[in-house]
Amino acid sequence: MRVVQDDLIMSRLKVSLVVFLQVLDIRSNSHLQELPPSIIKLKRLICLQFDSYDMTVIPDGFGNLTSLEVLNEILASLNILIELCNLTRLRVLTIGFYDDLSLDVEGAFVESVCKLTNIQSLTLWGSFQSTDLFGGRWVPSQHLRIFNWFDVGVFSTLPAWIRRYSSHLSNLSELRIRVKNLQEEDLQVLGRLPSLRVLYLRSTHQTERLLVIGADAFHCRTTFAVYLTPPAQIMFGGGVLPRAEEVHFRFGVQLAKDEGNDDFDSGLGNLLQSLVVEFSKNEPLTILGGEENGGCAQAPTPGSSESPQNSH
């Protein structure tokens, strides 16, 4: 059921048969201020969709919706996060934070996510500075396919749960994160993930001057995007990214010149047999591979976004 008006949801939730409801979509309802307390009786509800900008108040007892598998665009609060740990069937979670995480909110969020052992897709949106969450406390679900925190905050390093528990990430197909400083061993860890097809990775305080992407890495990758700030030199080994359809990266041309490496070989020839490259002074380099694009590399047009995901 997709709800389009406040009175509609209020009336229908009073109907006894509504207890059998499995999907409730209340997006595009800017006038809906709060959900009725009766929503916690929807024990068979599997999917609940909110709007990311709605400030809809959710009643206490939300954790009783234990059949939920999909929870999209919910706005976090301490009470919501405390009850979230009861939703152990969740496969898809998109959750937003408008303010910096307090210690209480951070603790409740970490505790709840650690109990979501069936989670397949975890997306965070909001506006806080640091996402050094979990530490070594989170052992990711072996079902995890999507982890998307690209536009939220910055990890100081590659998260410990990726480095320590890479064996649990055999199904991870999409990863979008930001770190302060990307190191070569981080790329080695990511390059060994067997199912990773889409990677968007940004560093904000890059100190490593040269990153080598080893031979035969990233076998399943179709989209590879690494944005280093400030730009560094990237070298691609032989056999790397054999299935790549898109490659985006910043290349430190000026850095190479400043260090006297005018003849620096980045190994672009190892990516595609036929490659046309256009360098732009202020934009990252984009390489479009495959038959449709003819192996053409180009810089993004002015005003284009580096991250293709939708922003909030």
TrEMBL record:
Biased composition (Polar residues): 301-312
InterPro entries: LRR_dom_sf, LRR_R13L4/SHOC2-like
Record keywords: Repeat
Keyword Cell membrane applies: no
Source domain of life: Eukaryota
Annotated region described as Disordered, given as residue ranges: 289-312
Occurrences of domain Disease resistance R13L4/SHOC-2-like LRR (ranges): 19-275
PANTHER family: LEUCINE-RICH REPEAT-CONTAINING PROTEIN 57, OS11G0589401 PROTEIN
Protein name stated in the entry: Disease resistance R13L4/SHOC-2-like LRR domain-containing protein
Protein species of origin: Brachypodium distachyon
